[in-house]
Backbone:
């Protein structure tokens, strides 16, 4: 390659914002730009070029095979996706020619949005779009219920039951949408905490009251130490964590079986345990219960987001969540928070 062409090619490569490597028709590297060096483990090059066998340890197998197909004449162009480390990378290989000069094989590559990012964006968009019609439906049913209560509408008894069913299903779907939005915010790091010092007992008592107001048949026993316990946390978010844990305990407990909340302190941290008397969790599922969208073998309904959201919120507070369970003997979900 002439010095003039060499300078021109390197100038072109550096002007391109994505990773680029240029090969001649024999498969020797003619040039690589800065982005290419960063992505492909600093491929070295010089004016004499070098054989592609040297790139065996630098380029992913799929990319190397794509370039070989063009060099051997099997293909006029290749494209695909590959993971380089944890990066999802899209690549394209094609021949290029400047005037009547020898053709150059150009390999370009750039990082793509991860599947998690794509899923998170979709969940966020879908959830926002669903909230608008749900809000309208809920508003309409509430208006009809108020008119019915004031005897302004002559509904038959079956119509009243139907309206209550519609309202209940809207509440259920609204809760699912809110969970999807919350999972999206947590995955993308868009949850902000507003922390302050609070008595932990007060928040636990409020969580119990909310649970009982929901009409669940399981009684809740709250066990706390004799002295007040304070910690720094976001009150609304901690209530959200407790709502999820109490809902999970009631979901898998026999009707009327009590759920116990224990507040423990020690070793510079506050621990909260929620104990149920359900059937327990199989050992093979215990490592997955905090995964996003994970639904256990005996789960009926739901999105599999409640425990994921709860555990992520605890992590944001600098704590952690775990479980202790034995099939046939119930489960205990615990989380810790730094003691004030």
Residues:
């Amino acid at each position: 390659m002439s010095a003039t062409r060499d300078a021109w090619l390197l100038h072109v490569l550096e002007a391109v914002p994505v990773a680029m490597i240029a090969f001649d028709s024999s498969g020797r590297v003619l040039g690589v730009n800065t982005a290419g060096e960063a992505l492909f483990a600093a491929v070295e090059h010089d004016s004499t070029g070098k054989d592609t066998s040297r790139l065996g340890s630098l380029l992913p197998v799929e990319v190397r095979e794509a370039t070989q197909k063009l060099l051997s004449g099997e293909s006029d162009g290749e494209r695909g996706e590959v993971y380089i480390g944890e990066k999802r990378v899209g690549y394209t290989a094609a021949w290029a020619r400047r005037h009547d000069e020898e053709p150059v094989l150009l390999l370009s590559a750039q990082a793509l949005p991860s599947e998690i990012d794509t899923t998170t964006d979709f969940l966020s968009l879908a959830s926002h779009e669903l909230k608008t019609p749900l809000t309208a439906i809920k508003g309409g049913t509430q208006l009809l219920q108020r008119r019915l209560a004031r005897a302004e509408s002559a509904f038959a008894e079956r119509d009243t039951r139907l309206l209550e069913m519609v309202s209940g299903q809207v509440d259920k779907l609204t809760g699912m949408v809110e969970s999807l939005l919350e999972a999206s915010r947590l995955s993308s790091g868009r949850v902000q905490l507003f922390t302050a010092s609070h008595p932990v007992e007060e928040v636990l008592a409020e969580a119990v009251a909310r649970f009982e107001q929901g009409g669940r048949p399981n009684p809740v026993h709250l066990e706390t130490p004799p002295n007040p316990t304070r910690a720094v946390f976001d009150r609304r978010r901690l209530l959200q964590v407790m709502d999820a844990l109490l809902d999970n305990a009631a979901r898998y407990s026999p009707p009327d079986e009590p759920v116990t909340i224990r507040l423990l302190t020690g070793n510079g941290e506050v621990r909260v345990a929620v104990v149920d008397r359900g059937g327990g969790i199989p050992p093979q599922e215990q490592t997955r219960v905090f995964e996003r969208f994970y639904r256990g073998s005996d789960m009926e309904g739901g999105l599999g987001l409640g425990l994921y959201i709860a555990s992520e919120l605890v992590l944001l507070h600098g704590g952690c969540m775990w479980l202790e369970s034995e099939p046939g003997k119930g489960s205990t979900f615990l989380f810790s928070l730094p003691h004030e």
